[in-house]
Amino acid sequence: MEYISVADKDNKEIGMIRSLSELIGEQYSIVVTELENRYYSPTVYEVKSVKDKLGYVYLELLIGSDDHRYTKSCAVKDVNKNIRMLDDDRLAIFDVDGNRYIIQSLTELDKKSLKRLEPYLF
User: Fold this and answer.
1) What is the C-alpha separation between 118 and 48, in angstroms, rounded?
2) Which among 20, 55, 82, 105 counts the fewest CB atoms within 10 Å?
3) Could you give the residue ranges of the DSSP H alpha helices within 49-102?
4) Of the candidates 93, 85, 108, the residue with the CA atom closest to the CA atom of residue 59
5) Residue 42 parent element (H or E)
6) Backbone angles phi, psi at 30, to 5 degrees
7) Closest C-alpha among 95, 94, 93 to residue 106
8) Looking at the DSSP assignment, which residues form a beta bridge with residue 84?
């Protein structure tokens, strides 16, 4: 929410937003909507399956929000870089398509999901 680079259509930086709190009304709404679209990171509620095959890890995840959840399959390459702890209890998963998924709390994850992920937690 601070120090957000603003670029033109050619990806050339044209400015910097020091803090979203400095924006008002429609400006704030536009920037927040763009950030949410660009950095969409659904919450993972369950890890349904994990398969290791030919250097990729294939995951079937239950993702979404509290009121709308759905199953998503994804592939992860180089798990050392793309399945990583954000802090003591949160985990991020980055798939080969550039999507990111967040486990908000490993301690609150069900035991089966945690057991499926354990070999990839470094």
Assistant:
1) 14
2) 55
3) 79-82
4) 93
5) none
6) -65, -45
7) 93
8) 92
Q: Distance between CA atoms of 62 and 47, rounded to whole angstroms?
A: 6
Task: Compute CA distances 62 → 30, 94, 105, whole Å.
Answer: 29, 15, 14
For residues 86 and 32, give the distance between their C-alpha atoms in angstroms, rounded to a whole number: 22
Provide the residue count of the chain. 122
Strand partners, 100: 94
Amino acid identity, residue 59?
L
Whether the per-residue pLDDT at 36 is higher than 90: the answer is: no
Instruction: Describe the strand order of the beta sheet including 56-64 as a list of residue ranges.
Output: 69-77, 56-64, 43-53, 100-103, 91-94, 83-85
pLDDT in tens, 39-76: 778 999 999 999 999 999 999 999 988 789 999 999 99
**CB-CB neighbours of 101 under 10 Å:** 22
Of 68, 73, 117, 64, which is closest to residue 95 (Cα–Cα)? 73
CA distance 44 to 61: 7
